[in-house]
Amino acid sequence: MTELRYLPDADDVTAFEATVEEATEEYIILDGTYFYPEGGGQPPDHGTIEWDGGSAEIDDVWKDHGDVRHGIASMDGDLPAAGTTVEGIVDEQRRRNLSRMHTAQHVVSRVVLDEYEATTAGNQVYADRSRIDFEPASFDNEDLDRIESLSNAAIESDHAVVKEQRPREQVEANVDEGRALLGMIPDHVDPLRVVAIEEFDMCPCGGTHADSLGELGEVTILDCTSKGEDIDRIEFTLSGVE
Ligand SMILES: [Zn+2]
Prior knowledge:
Layout: E1 3-4, E2 15-23, E3 27-30, E4 32-33, E5 47-51, E6 54-64, E7 67-77, E8 85-90, H1 92-116, E9 119-125, E10 130-135, H2 141-156, E11 161-166, H3 168-174, E12 192-197, E13 201-204, E14 219-226, E15 232-238
Parallel strand pairs: 1-4
Antiparallel strand pairs: 2-3, 2-8, 3-7, 5-6, 5-8, 6-7, 9-10, 10-15, 11-12, 12-13, 14-15
Helix pairs in contact: 1-2
């Protein structure tokens, strides 16, 4: 069982020490990690794991029955034995871009819910561009301009982004309809990790995020395509992500 140390609010930590639980040619399992494993529409972190006598480049991270597997792209030296202390270094620029993108996704999803009563049916963030599927939705160019400018107005307000565990009952009572698929989260998950943008939005989410909206830069909507009856996909990017 790997402890997810980036939760609930340590998503700015990118260097850490941990102990090897298992190492194979394909992956390393640690007792705890700050690497984000792919999930919830957010890709995995990249980085390196170093130990006395070797190091591994990590280019994929995924959950497997409560363990987090750090996938090895290439390795120098010998595999570390179980019990070895290692240093993990998360690719900071990639993490930062993914955190900013994921937070921007919350902003755009909120704006669209408030203005068009369309919910987020799916989303996928990347380090350089992101997409959100809205339902029911049929946006024209004027709508897209409006969504973009309202999102940027929210970002300029520079609200704080609070990440913390809250009792499930409290989250269920307070989350706005259309901002959470609580039925998708197994009943035993309690408390829930929530991401709350002060005075603006709150929803349960397990990803990494910025600490305030001012970090996001400017949202630019790149494209909008129909993904079937009543579903529109908006693609956007942020200034400063390359
Ligand atoms: Zn999120």
